[in-house]
Design goal:
By secondary structure, this protein is of the alpha/beta class. It has two domains: 322 residues, Ribonuclease Z/Hydroxyacylglutathione hydrolase-like (Metallo-beta-lactamase, Chain A, 4-Layer Sandwich), CATH 3.60.15.10; 35 residues, no CATH class. Helix content is 24%, strand content 26%. The chain is built from ten helices and 18 strands. A nine-stranded mixed sheet has the order 6-5-4-3-2-1-16-17-18. A seven-stranded mixed sheet has the order 7-8-9-12-13-14-15, covered by helices on one side. Helix 4 runs parallel beside helix 5. The longest helix has 14 residues. The radius of gyration is 23 Å and the shape is globular. Bound molecules: zinc ion (ZN). Zinc ion binds next to helix 2.
Length: 368
Amino acid sequence: MFELHVLGTSSARFAHGRSVSGSVLSTPGGLALIDCGEGMQKRMLDHNRALKSSGSESRTRISRIRAVFLTHGHLDHTWGLLPLLQTLDLDGRRDRMVVMGPSTTEAIEWATQHPGEAPPVESGISSTDLAILFSQWQAIGTKDDDSSYTIDWVLLPMDGDTPFESPIQPLEGVTVTVVPNHHGVPSCGYHFETKGKAGRFDRARADSLGLSETQIAELAQGQDLMHEGAEITAASFRGNPRPGCSLMMSGDTKFGPSGFDVEKLPSPPRLLLHEATFLADKQDKASEYYHSTAADAARHATMCKAKTLALTHYSSRIERLSASISEAREHFTGSVAATSDGDWFEIDSNGDVIHNVRIENGWNKMNL
Ligand SMILES: [Zn+2]
């Protein structure tokens, strides 16, 4: 099962009680962060405490993070990362940490030749490209020899539009696919998927036939058997195959990356968490600043055949979320949810999605 705890739903700045971007993804292969804006470690602590006091068994402990997936280098998505990494050092962490994010071949080469420096304007390389930021962060405070743990900094060159499997897979049993997006700096979304499983084995039926333990084990492993002169087929003892869990997060993006086409993805995501900075009345602004409207998010959800669309990353101009939801519903026939800070989603291996809506003393569960 996946859980996605969304701890910041505002774009660019704090507004209407919303923090900037940062989500915690819990998977069978461990915990990951997707983006890490300002104050993320405090948000995780507060959220963890609230989960505990609500009686939930879910947790968002920073010590459990295996990997950080950054969608791009803008500071509202990254400014909380360095302090969080330093807290883990103070806590004496030993386990390796993976931090990955998009860049370009050109920026990676430049940062390799000029470690810790900002690129000159004429180079055309953004000073918030992650290749530049990673090399600066390493220079400031995360040198391997002083730190209690090792960080693997992984840069993903975004030189095309086609999704590709991440070169590092830090979450055991989970396949991460990188989905290039269109933003002012290199940006990407991530698709996460667990492998499907065979249908459940009908042990009670095998027992009722009086088979030996060895025969039952063979049957469970898929071997057909002869029993009392009749053939027993292993497949008939299996229920329907159980599909894997899948979810996808967009980076900051304007409408149009071809990676949202379902044909290019490993599977249609059960849940798509997509930025919806603007409403359609600001379509020109959305295109100019490489962001999406709620309608754009919905069109992407339709293209990738998502089951459920959850909106996030609202402009400070948007206070109430009802217009964003109605707009998205005009372009997408699946379920649409507007995410608020502290909401979390559960996606089980049947593909069912539950939206836990934050209320004062806990959460209300809603099936999507
Ligand atoms: Zn943003």
